Inverse folding.
């Protein structure tokens, strides 16, 4: 896959996130996508990813800005760095109580690409920073 094609795929995935279109995000993923959850485990498959997105949309309203996409020469690996601007809508298990707190934090995603689709999504952000922001209100 070319760098340009991979860049377009990652951009489409991130635009779907900002549009709150879980189905459009899923269209970018392989059926056996590996999803590495920030400071959590690994889930395999589109259905688990669909469930994860539904859970996240109940608890958080987020937009990604300042997006920078980086792709290796082969087009098989990519990363995106961005700023997450969000609102904590409903308390997520094991996290502080939600009451509409707003937060802003830098984050990134690492991707692997196989056969024209995203086969791995690895999310990375500073959970300690996020917790401090929502506790401060």
């Amino acid at each position: 896959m070319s760098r340009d094609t991979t860049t377009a795929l990652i951009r489409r995935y991130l635009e779907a996130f900002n549009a709150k279109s879980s189905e459009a995000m899923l269209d970018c993923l392989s059926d056996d996508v590996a999803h590495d959850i920030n400071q959590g485990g690994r889930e395999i498959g589109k259905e688990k990813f669909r469930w994860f997105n539904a859970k996240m949309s109940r608890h958080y309203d987020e937009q990604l800005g300042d997006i920078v996409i980086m792709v290796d020469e082969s087009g098989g690996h990519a990363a995106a760095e961005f700023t997450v601007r969000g609102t904590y809508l409903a308390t997520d298990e094991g996290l502080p109580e939600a009451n509409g707190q707003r937060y802003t934090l830098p984050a990134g995603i690492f991707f692997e690409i196989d056969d024209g689709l995203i086969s791995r999504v690895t999310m990375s952000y500073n959970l300690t920073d996020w917790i401090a922001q929502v506790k401060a209100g």
